[in-house]
Amino acid sequence: MVRTCDYPGCSNKDVADSPQSFHRFPVTDVALRKLWVLALGIHVDTKVEKIKKLRLCSAHFSDDDFLSTCPGQRQMKKRILKKSAVPAPQVNKTVAYQLIYEA
């Protein structure tokens, strides 16, 4: 079964040779997990068992959210998120449109 990104509206798939890396929600760090949940517009009271199954692709993080290799170090096979990384918030396009064009 091919896993897809659980970010609302994203259809990236975790397949061989995909340019995206896929990342699990932080379940043990409650404060960070709440930030991830809020960024995706998921209800904060969603059970941890459900959150454990979710994955996000690297498209929803900035380059600064990933560990970098030092000069002279081998390139990492997969991108690794920093422990403080939070995905970009899900934007309600209708609200964004109203803010931009009706102001």
From TrEMBL:
One of its GO terms (biological process) is endothelial cell proliferation. It is found in: Nucleus, Nucleoplasm. GO terms for cellular component: nucleoplasm. The keyword Cell cycle applies. PROSITE patterns: ZF_THAP. SUPFAM superfamilies: Glucocorticoid receptor-like (DNA-binding domain). GO terms for molecular function: DNA-binding transcription factor activity; sequence-specific DNA binding; zinc ion binding. It comes from the Eukaryota. The keyword Lyase does not apply. Its main location: nucleus. InterPro entries: THAP1/10, THAP_Znf, THAP_Znf_sf. Belongs to the THAP1 family. PANTHER family: THAP DOMAIN-CONTAINING, THAP DOMAIN-CONTAINING PROTEIN 1. DNA-binding transcription regulator that regulates endothelial cell proliferation and G1/S cell-cycle progression. Specifically binds the 5'-[AT]NTNN[GT]GGCA[AGT]-3' core DNA sequence and acts by modulating expression of pRB-E2F cell-cycle target genes. This is THAP domain-containing protein 1.
